[in-house]
Write a structure and sequence with these properties.
about 325 residues; mainly alpha; 12 helices; about 75% helix; single chain
Length: about 325
């Protein structure tokens, strides 16, 4: 139970404390206030959703008009992340999530990625402090900011929908948010790194075959990381929804785990592949691929074990009614924080 006012704590239950230490909608003005609040929340969410849709469509239009091949490269780079997100979606042993909240979570993540980009750019001066600044930038800025905005994409719409009725749903929506973030990040990297003179088929061949045009392959390998990080954070958001008394610390734990894995990856990938490649005498892409497989595979396996554990427990506690094909309602929660 939350903290209570001293008057409420000391008064007997027969005393009416309305508008003194407690409150519930009684009068017409109270009901108007409730409707105004709910309307403002709905309008605010609607505006943000419309802005995110407009932003995504604008990005697609700009990429497509610049060169359709850039769009193709972006889609190719997102394929591994999409495959991982699909697996997490399939691992949901409860009811499958509907199309609308999944799509809106994806769009919102793309939209909020711009805010992460602004913050990262504004605070990038931290890297000028040498190696300590370089590490601090990843652990105090990039990791926490990017994981927070991805979780915000889940919290804004999908979290409050009736379809979010199990802890594991948080991992599903978190993975979708990670997919959206990875997709827009890949698109920006590819646009920035393509040579200005190359277009059409020449650009496609350049990016898929030349040593100087390997950014698409690099982004394809890096993309699944965003799905893994935000699936961890999303899982704990789901756990928080059904544990209201400890919701804040649970959400903080999820973001902390995701941010630490994310920041550690960004730090290590900056030098481990090049050093390992030089020692082993292999190409940079080969060394990078090996590092990603080991690092992302390790944490992907931990996520896999977590989802499997939830699935085993879910099946173990199923009632006879559910095993025979019946349905059991899920208790709604009051957590709105």
């Amino acid at each position: 139970m939350g903290q209570r006012d001293p008057v409420e704590a000391r008064a007997d239950r027969s005393r009416d404390l309305y508008d003194i230490a407690t409150w519930e909608p009684r009068s017409r003005l109270d009901r108007i206030a409730v409707k105004l609040y709910r309307g403002a929340v709905a309008v605010g969410r609607g505006v943000i959703i419309l802005l995110s849709l407009a932003f995504v469509l604008g990005v697609v239009f700009l990429i497509g008009t610049n060169d359709p091949v850039v769009g193709v490269l972006t889609l190719l780079s997102a394929v591994p992340a999409l495959g991982l997100a699909w697996y997490i979606y399939s691992a949901d042993v409860t009811s499958k999530e509907p199309f609308v909240p999944i799509v809106l979570t994806f769009f919102l993540s793309v939209f909020f990625a711009t805010f992460a980009g602004i913050v990262n750019t504004t605070l990038s001066f931290v890297q000028t402090l040498g190696l300590p600044g370089f590490v601090l930038f990843f652990f105090l800025v990039v990791g926490p900011v990017e994981e927070a905005v991805k979780l915000l994409a889940v919290r804004l719409y999908a979290y409050g929908s009736s379809s979010f009725d199990a802890v594991i749903d948080g991992a599903v929506y978190g993975a979708i948010a990670g997919l959206g973030f990875a997709t827009i990040e890949n698109a920006l990297y590819i646009v920035q790194n393509t040579q200005m003179g190359a277009t059409g088929a020449d650009l496609l061949v350049q990016q898929l075959s030349s040593s100087d045009g390997s950014i698409t392959a690099f982004r394809a390998l890096a993309g699944p990381g965003h799905v893994i990080y935000s699936a961890f954070a999303g899982y704990y958001l789901g756990l928080a929804k059904f544990n209201r008394e400890n919701a804040g610390p649970i959400v903080a734990k999820g973001i902390l785990i995701a941010a630490l894995i994310h920041a550690t990856y960004n730090t290590l990938v900056s030098f481990v592949p090049s050093v390992a490649g030089a020692i082993l005498g292999v190409g940079s892409l080969v060394a990078f691929f090996a590092f990603v497989v080991v690092y992302q595979g390790f944490f992907g396996y931990i996520l896999y074990r977590k989802l499997k554990r939830y699935g085993r427990t879910y099946r173990a506690v199923q009632s006879e009614t559910e095993r025979s094909g019946g349905t059991v309602g899920v208790d709604s929660t009051e957590f709105d924080g």
